[in-house]
Specification:
By secondary structure, the chain is α+β, with helices and mostly antiparallel strands. The chain folds into two domains: about 130 residues, no CATH class; about 130 residues, no CATH class. The protein is about 35% helix and about 15% strand. The chain has ten helices and eight strands. The longest helix is centred in the middle third of the chain and has 18 residues. The relative contact order is 0.21.
Length: about 290
């Protein structure tokens, strides 16, 4: 199943929830304990769950080195991201060793999630943070050492980049996905989000905004983000998902049902125009019936 889906850069997030070995990672006792150690009791997870395959971030912003980004970057310059109590993290379980030739891990700017200035307006403090991180990306990046089963959790405001393999010049990196990696060198990571119980609400609101923008400005690619947001909870999730989360003491961070429904209607209309996309939009139902 993890070998990928024809015609798409990666598996839709709606499908990932229906693959038990993938979703069950979030509910394993050791993983739950690690999330709660950082986020406290009542830790929340969102409905974003993905399994990038041979993914190498190739995008570039002005003055930013290739591939570097922050997951919170699309949330804009907002005050809640500067709150010292804010805690929202990306969790990644790596399924293979990193090696210099073929990549397989990430590098980060240590401390890059913090705002170096304690004074000034919101934009000024964000720009100061960006300048600090531009320097850090170039002069003191830290590469995370991973082995199969390594769990990495990093702040959503932390600059990071996937490690570009030494073989990159020989690979086809269309859409940031390497398509010429030998099977025995294939790289997978299972990614999801974890948050303090009082910090996910703003992110979830931004999920809806981002999904709407994706549907308003189609770029010819499958609307991956809207695919995740349109999932109705618990109706479109596997049996036992809700009870597993409850048993683990985790909160499911989801948009209000009326917003999810509005995204679902727009999503189905958009993918219905592309037969290939329509196939994958309903694939999770096929897994449910299996």
């Amino acid at each position: 199943m993890l070998q990928g889906v024809a015609g798409l850069a990666q598996m839709p997030m709606s499908m990932c929830h229906w693959i038990r070995p993938v979703r069950s990672i979030m509910f394993r006792p050791a993983v739950v304990a690690a999330m709660k150690e950082l986020m406290g009791e009542g830790c929340a997870i969102t409905t974003e769950l993905s399994v990038p395959r041979n993914g190498f971030t190739t995008g570039k912003r002005k003055l930013t080195r290739m591939g570097w980004h922050e997951d919170a970057g699309n949330e804009g310059h907002v005050a809640y991201l500067m709150d010292p109590r804010y805690r929202f993290a990306k969790c990644g379980l790596f399924l293979q060793d990193h090696d210099p030739e073929w990549g397989g891990t990430i590098q980060v700017v240590s401390g890059g999630h913090r705002f170096p200035l304690k004074f000034g307006g919101i934009d000024f403090r964000f720009y100061a943070k960006r300048i600090f991180n531009i320097v850090g990306e170039r002069y003191w990046p830290t590469q995370i050492r991973v082995r199969p089963g390594t769990l990495v959790m990093f702040d959503s405001r932390l600059p990071h980049a996937s490690t570009m393999p030494a073989m990159a010049r020989k690979l086809n990196l269309g859409s940031g996905k390497a398509t010429d990696v030998p099977p025995d060198k294939t790289k997978y990571v299972i990614y999801w989000n974890a948050s303090r119980p009082d910090c996910y609400q703003q992110y979830v609101a931004n999920m809806v905004t981002r999904a709407n923008k994706e549907l308003e400005s189609p770029n010819g690619e499958y609307p991956f983000y809207a695919d995740a947001v349109r999932m109705r909870f618990p109706r479109d999730f596997p049996p036992g998902y809700e009870s597993d989360a409850k048993a683990a003491g985790l909160v499911i961070g989801i948009p209000p049902s009326e917003q999810t429904e509005a995204i679902r209607v727009r999503f189905e209309k958009a993918v219905g125009l592309n037969p290939g996309f329509a196939r994958w939009a309903t694939a999770f139902r096929d897994l449910a019936a299996a």
